[in-house]
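Reminder: ligand-aware prediction takes two inputs, not one.
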Amino acid sequence: MTKNPKKRGKFITLEGMDGAGKSTHIPNIIAALKARGLEVVSTREPGGTRLGEQLRALLLHDAMHAETETLLMFAARREHIANLIEPALKRGAYVLSDRFTDATYAYQCGAKGVPSHKIKQLEKWVQGKLQPDLTLLFDVPVEISIQRLTVAREPDKFEREDAKFFEKLRQAYLMRAKEDPARFRIIDANQALDKVKVIVKNIISTI
Ligand code: TMP
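Here is what comes back for the chain with thymidine-5'-phosphate:
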């Protein structure tokens, strides 16, 4: 038996509709974890590896069948888990991922109608037992999200969807959170940024 085996790290994911403001909090989360002396690996989906970033470019800009999109998301995820997430967790690092599989349930299943049993099969195949230890869901009303997106950068394929799509997305995310309350923290992101920062900091201090 190995002496002093390294304690496995933690896997934290950030989720929410486009425009919910989750990515704004990444630098603060990294700083809070590093201040505790932890190694932090910050990554994103789709992406996080060389191949994953290539798939991201296709996924965000090319029109495709919703099931093709689902399969490519999981192909990128397989690569991400094998090459980045698992090795980091094994050596004791905290992995912070801007989106993970909840996004597939929200976007491809909730908003685009891919049956959840198909996503479950892929999830089991690609992830095995791997699940995030903590998921922060940044929630805002649809009109706020759309408002924020119109003043942001050039929109990608998903960001150009209509209010109906965004409403389905929001409900799908809230349903995921309701189904797994031990893992999710829902953050009301429709309030002053400083308040949201404090909420995020408090949550991160618990893991
Ligand atoms: P981002 O702009 O927040 O980095 O996310 C990229 C886009 O990809 C975002 O609009 C959500 C979408 N997406 C899916 O549709 N399914 C997924 O499984 C993931 C990870 C992202």
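The chain has eight helices and five strands. Residues 18, 44-46, 60, 73, 98-99, 103-104, 107-108, 158 surround thymidine-5'-phosphate (CB under 6 Å). We will return to this case in the review session.
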